[in-house]
Amino acid sequence: MGGGGGKGEKARQAARPARVRLWVARASTVLLWTCVVHLAAYRELWAPSVLTRWPGCLSQPPVVVRRPSEAVATADGETAAAAAVALPPKRIYKNNGYLMVSCNGGLNQMRAAICDMVTIARYLNVTLIVPELDKTSFWADPSEFQDIFDVDYFIASLRDEVRILKELPPRLKRRVEMGFLRSMPPISWSDISYYRYQILPLIRKHKVLHLNRTDARLANNGLPMEIQKLRCRVNYGALRFTPEIEKVGRHLIQVLRRNGPFVVLHLRYEMDMLAFSGCTHGCSNEEAEELTRMRYAYPWWKEKVIDSNAKRKDGLCPLTPEETAMVLKALDIDRSYQIYIAAGEIFGGQRRMAALTSAYPNVVRKETLLPSDISLFQNHSSQMAALDYMVSLESDIFIPTYDGNMAKVVEGHRRYLGFKKTVLLDRKLIVELVDQYKNGTLSWTDFSSTVKASHTSRMGEPSRRQMIPDKPKEEDYFYANPHECLHQPDDLSIL
Asked: Is the pTM of this model over 0.90?
């Protein structure tokens, strides 16, 4: 019995290390999985940058996104599901805080601002909240971001650059709702160092920063190439319209194409444009007084006393419909072409449009081409502008009569699509020629030949932006000619 007890004791002693090793192995496994779970949960906040450079290290596999209800019409009228888009893995970075932005202005002013704000958020390594659109401007459009742009695609397509959320996390959202929010307008035309040294410290301090104005807040020039290219990527890739807008936009383009070539005329002769600019050439005294009253009614329109004649002679007024008709004829635009009016209601109505419709009988608008479809977007000026934007990109010729935001952004987008023909009118020269023709000192032949000769190099061909140090408002706008993003010769001259 004594010998047997000794053997049992030895067996128990031999088994003890094995049990300890088993316990250690199990505990280590549990601990390892706990670490992995926590790592996965918090990786977006503190993952080391060295890991993000290598595929498979805290990265995610590509995601395939399909747009629900999206369809592409084929030649025989049938529809096919749109191709799925494979998205890159998320970029992982230490989040420095949250950036909220409220865009101001019309659709295309806000579009450019969104591109700038995404780029700034990426550079500062912050989380961007989906931008708020302007609802208090002249147009009073109540549309939200998701009513105009495909918000899910916008967020997902930029996931390898910047984290974008539809709203703040709950705790921070409650703080903002209680009024704890730092809000400010950034300085116009700032370079990226301003955002790094002035804005980023505020975001780190307050956790959330709200930029309440976004128009022209990033410089045109002097920025790193990767920043300029990201602005283009957002504009031409991430910002696509909702399926509902794109469906109607494609239908408009199909109807126009069935009827032959078409010119998009961005005829900026709406009441708000004339009141803001103070341009009253061709208006009656009553109309001029009405425009003046409107200008004084909006306190944020700073310029009140305006010399319309002087401004027109300096080329700072939109061309009138009558002047535009003369230019189209001088440029030998075929009378049979469709002239699509991409604009709101023309001030003066049919009386002011008579010269244009007489010269070009096929003047059309989206409201006349697809009245039932367009009615869905009535009273939503930005959604209506989105339809005009789509048609403008696809037109045979695009001619803006004033260099506003839509004119500039569409010009740049058409360059990106292969330098599609865009006639950039020299308004100062044109009004001088028009006046000479009307007072009998210039023949029609000379008028036409001069207009054609002066615009041979103003057709949206490859060129480099004109840069004017310390005068960003006077130099070429980045989004009108983003030459850093275009395939063009290196030895180009400035337009």
From this structure: no
